[in-house]
Amino acid sequence: MWTDDEIKGKILHKLTRLGKFKHSHTSIDNLHKGFPTDLRGRVKDLVIALSKEGILFQKPTSYGLEVSINAEEREKILRYIDCFLAKE
Q1: Domain total for the chain?
Q2: Are 7 and 35 in contact (CB under 8 A)?
Q3: Is the entire prediction scored with pTM above 0.70?
């Protein structure tokens, strides 16, 4: 069973590995890849929650919503990633 913090940590871990900071964005539709199929709806909801927390920037485009990491929220990001890595 995944907690919300573990899912947020996996999302942020994925984005940091891909180098998606500031002006480098990725589609919100790609973030659920790698999660079990029953969690995919929660992943999209938690991406929106991360945006509301100020951890992710959103960039609306003509082909969909894109996101990137707000590097100024480093402490929150590391806390979520540590929570995910502790699960493994």
Answers
A1: 1
A2: yes
A3: yes
| Confidence check: pLDDT of 87 > 90 | no
The tokens 């609306």 sit on which residue? 60
Q: For residues 87 and 85, give the distance between their C-alpha atoms in angstroms, rounded to a whole number.
A: 5
C-alpha angle with apex 74: 71 to 54, nearest 5 degrees?
A: 65
Would you state the pLDDT for residue 22? Answer: 86
Residues 13-39: b if buried by 16+ CB within 10 A, e if exposed: bbbeeeebeeeebbebeebbeebeeee
Q: Which helix (H) or strand (E) holds 9?
A: helix 4-18
DSSP code per residue over 30-67: GTTTTS-GGGHHHHHHHHHHHHHTTSEEEEEETTEEEE
Which domain range does residue 77 map to?
A: 4-87
Grouping H, G, I as helix, E, B as strand and the rest as coil, residue 78 is: helix
Residue 48 sits in a domain whose CATH number is: 1.10.10.10
